[in-house]
Amino acid sequence: MDLSKLASGLLQGAEEIVRSDEACLDTAKTAEEAARYLARNLDERKELVDLEHEGYTLFDALSLSWTRLAQSFDPSQAASNDTKGWASEDSRIQLASALGKLERNLIAGIQPFQDIAEQHEEAIRALIFNITTFVRIEDERFFTLHAILAQLLCNLISPSSGQAGADRLADKYLRLYLSGGRNEDIIIRLLDSRDSKTNNATLHLLNNVVRGDRNRLQLLLSDIGVRWLAKILNRMDEWVEAQNGLFELGASIFNQMIDHSLHPKLFDLLSDPGEVITPSQTVLLKILDSHLSSSRSSAPSPSPHIFLIGLFHNLARYSKISIDSKADDPRLPKVFEGLILVTEGLSAVGLAVQSRKDQHRPSEGLEGDAELAWNMKDVEGGVVKPSIELLRSLDTFFPRLNPRVQSQSTGATIMPISDDLKPFSNLKRNIVQLLGILTFEDTLVGDQVREAEGIQLILGMTEIDENNPYLREHALLCVRNLMLNNPANQAIVSQMNPVGVLSPENGELLPVPDKMKKK
């Protein structure tokens, strides 16, 4: 494969090529063939382009081509472009796509090639800007070109290795794209694309430039960076349904932020004064919940997850006020969803702390996850009493459904909750599960539950409830933990008049045996 002829042709007639449909298509064909050859023979790339050779190289030729192509697609120069006699738009798209594939394959992972190709990053950026206008970003004719140029940009600025200096371009251009200039922020425009290949390349670019580098991850917490991250988060539900790998790529960025304890600040930056919790915050909680459930190591100290306690307080307070008001509140489902995610995250931390104790690992003291667990149990700022208060309101809001029990007065069966609320009925179960974890081998937490009059409430949840699968099982475990080694809690139960006995087989409420009746 001889690339010198292609380079010579581009150098001598870059502008003429862009003005002729025939020349565009002929050059595109040659570049396509070269791109395919490079893809099959990656180890020959350094031999095909001799950077030591005196005179112009293929990269110089590409610089001229990218500059002319960017000019030809400039929407702000539409009037003058019409008089310049550019080739048809379709022909220029084919030419740009072929040259993009060629250079994308040529520079991938070769730092000297990346360094010299940097000379036309500005032209490539200008071309991306010009073909991602409001109209062109939705024009399917441009989709392939969007993806190819995003891949080219990714290969151009991504660190080629872990060696010192290999991340120079990543650092330089991430800062440039985040600088706030309209023409510089091409990432936000690429993220607007509905083409999965363009999304894939853009997410790869972001992953590559921030991977393992806390400083560059912190750059994403700037105003522009948060806009990028919010846009990604707001598309995660769409991507998880598509099962095209985009969800995993997006989640990787946020998992890196969690690994570097940057997620509390990001969560705060994603807030909206007019919302209790924003959609992007909810998705971030989903990723954090998954991260906490799968993590085998303790968080650093001070625990970066401590913000979950304050968030629980805010969401629980809002929910209780809304429920008690009995007013229609369209925000409540989203608040419930946030609470479910927060309680799952806190439960995951509590279980992890207990698991490490059970495995006789060295004590963490009050550091990391253990610190968070201790704060959850705090009398004043913890989650125990707010959980009981919210649980009491939820017990009315989400009626229980036991098909074996009917109203004694009317004979009417308790109706199930509406379909739009059913996904959130598990919130009761999650709260009881969290209380069960916190009360395990901790009588002080059990005392808090008793003082909040929560024992009777949780006992009532040991009855079967088809609206809340596994609520009964978690309630039974919680009651067990509340009673163990806690005479004061046991006394509460001994003073209660039993109304029935739960069948161990199916949870049915059976009559009280004579021997259990109080005399």
Automatic annotation (TrEMBL):
Keywords annotated in UniProt: Cell cycle, Cell division
GO biological process, any: cell division
Signal peptide boundaries: none
InterPro entries tied to this protein: ARM-like (IPR011989), ARM-type_fold (IPR016024), Ataxin-10/CTR86_families (IPR051374), Ataxin-10_domain (IPR019156)
Residue stretches making up the Ataxin-10 domain: 427-502
Domain of life of the organism encoding this protein: Eukaryota
GO cellular component annotations of the record: cytosol
Function noted in UniProt: May play a role in the regulation of cytokinesis.
Assigned protein family: Belongs to the ataxin-10 family.
Name of the molecule in the record: Ataxin-10 homolog
Organism whose genome encodes this protein: Kwoniella dejecticola CBS 10117
